[in-house]
Amino acid sequence: MWSKLKQIIGKTTSDTKTYADFYLQYLEAYYKPDLKKSIHEQSFVILDTETTGLDLGQDNILSIGAVRIINNTIDISDSLSIIVKNQQFQTQNAVAIHGLVQTDIKGQSEGESIAALFKFVGSDIIVGHHIAFDIAMLNKLSRKNGGGDLKNNLLDTSYLARRLDHTTDPDSLDRKEYTLDKLCSRFKVIPKARHTADGDAFITAIVFMKLIQKLYIKGVTSTGQLVRK
Taking 80 as the threshold, does the pLDDT of residue 180 lie above it? Predict the structure, then answer.
């Protein structure tokens, strides 16, 4: 066990023992995806978080929503919905945007929440809209509770949409034209429960399915081709 953990995180055996159990279990079970596998046979976790703001240093996670795609199908029975107990002062804007009231924010503890998230994602490729921020917030919460960073491959639907439109230089396109709302409009996805973690995860899952269908037609058929930058 310890040799595998050392290989994954690049630390000594004594270092790994300082991690919380949830993270050690995640590392022990983690494996890299088969890059030769068809994207239609791959397993993905579509993830969204709602936070008290966009300041990575000061703000906290309010809720986490995730749903799994496997064998080219959104499996709504295999989903995760967590309200994170949060003591941070709740502003009127946060209430308006997220629809959460104080009673909602008495959910699971931060430790319980992050442990459940790591267990749910396992080794699957994680997908989200502007996923880097969500992952940074989750990694922060993990470290705060004795864990470490997620090792999973990541896919950003904003980047995939730009890649669909400009194969050779996706970053040359204006990111403001690739918001989740604009992608919903483009692909005729009804944005139900927008600005909730559960709702945005499901909406993003539908958008992601539309994107990989179009990318597949353009020759992006394997997992390795999909995750390349």
Answer: yes
Nearest-5° angle of CA 63, CA 30, CA 212? 65
145 close to 61: Cβ distance less than 8 angstroms: no
- Give the pLDDT confidence score for residue 107 in this predicted structure: 83
Does some domain include residue 201? yes
Q: How many domains does the structure of the chain reveal?
A: 1
Instruction: Give the residue numbers spanning the domain of 171.
Output: 38-227
> How far apart are the C-alpha atoms of 125 and 111, rounded to whole Å?
23
The answer as to whether 143 is a domain residue is yes
| DSSP β-bridge partners for residue 48 | 65
The CATH number for 86's domain is: 3.30.420.10
Instruction: State the Cα–Cα distance between residues 180 and 184, nearest whole angstrom.
Output: 6
Using CB atoms within 10 Å of the CB of residue 129, give its burial: 0 to 12 exposed, 13 to 18 middle, 19+ buried. buried
Q: How far is CA 169 from the centre of its chain?
A: 24
Residue 6 within a domain: no
What separation in angstroms does the CA of 165 have from each of 78, 82, 131, 214?
31, 35, 19, 10
Of the pLDDT bands very low, low, confident and very high (cuts 50, 70, 90), residue 167 is: confident
Residue 5 lies in a domain: no
Three-state DSSP state, 8: helix
